[in-house]
Every structure is written in structure tokens, then in C-alpha cells.
């Protein structure tokens, strides 16, 4: 991308991406606000084996979420 924005939001979307690392590496923003369902409670609360639209490719624990951001070049503040 050849533009930059101040803030990018990624709210409850990264778990749906096949490769969130690639997306995070290429975001144009200076700051990123992101959330995902926490793995510790997500599966039992929301996982539905009868739901064909359940397309969560990833389940993150807090340390995995931090690692993903650090490895993709973001600083966690």
C-alpha cells in the first residue's frame, strides 16, 4: 500500500484470517488497536460444531497474540 493512516483497528477479525501475520506486516498504520476472543474461554463458549459458518482459523492465548504482533513488527504498549 502506498498510503499511511494514523490508526488501524482490527476488532475480532484476526482469528478469521488464514495468515494474520502477513496482514499485520502490511498494515499501513502507525498505531493498531486489535482484539481477538481469548482462547481460554472462547472454545467452550462459542465453538459450535453445527455451525458451518464457524471459520475461526486461529485461537489465541494472550502470549500468542503478543508474539504475533512482536514478530510482525508492532510494538506493544
What do you see in this structure?
There is one protein chain. With 77 residues, this protein is an alpha+beta fold. It has one domain. Helices cover 31% and strands 18% of the residues. It contains 3 helices and 2 strands; from the N terminus they run E-H-E-H-H. A two-stranded parallel sheet has the order 1-2. The longest helix is centred in the last third of the chain and has 10 residues, at 62-71. It is globular and about 40 Å long. The relative contact order is 0.24. The mean pLDDT is 84.
- H and E string: EHEHH
Mean pLDDT across every amino acid position: 84
Based on DSSP secondary structure assignment, what is the total number of beta strands? 2
Looking at the structure, what is the overall shape? globular
Largest sheet: 2 strands, parallel
Q: How helix-rich are the residues, as a percent range?
A: 25-40%
With strands numbered from the N-terminus, the spatial order across the biggest sheet is: 1-2
What structural class is derived from the secondary structure elements?
Answer: alpha+beta
- Count of all domains: 1
Distance between the termini: 25 Å
Work out the helix count.
3
Point out poorly predicted stretches.
Answer: none
What percentage of amino acids are in beta strands? 15-25%
Alpha-carbon Rg, integer: 14 Å
Amino acid at each position: 500500500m502506498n498510503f499511511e493512516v494514523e490508526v488501524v483497528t482490527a476488532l475480532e477479525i484476526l482469528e478469521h484470517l488464514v495468515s494474520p501475520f502477513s496482514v499485520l506486516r502490511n498494515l499501513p498504520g502507525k498505531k493498531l488497536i486489535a482484539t481477538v476472543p481469548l482462547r481460554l474461554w472462547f472454545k467452550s463458549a462459542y465453538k459450535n460444531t453445527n455451525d458451518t459458518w464457524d471459520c475461526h482459523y486461529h485461537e489465541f492465548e494472550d502470549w500468542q497474540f503478543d508474539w504475533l504482533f512482536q514478530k510482525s513488527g508492532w510494538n506493544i504498549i
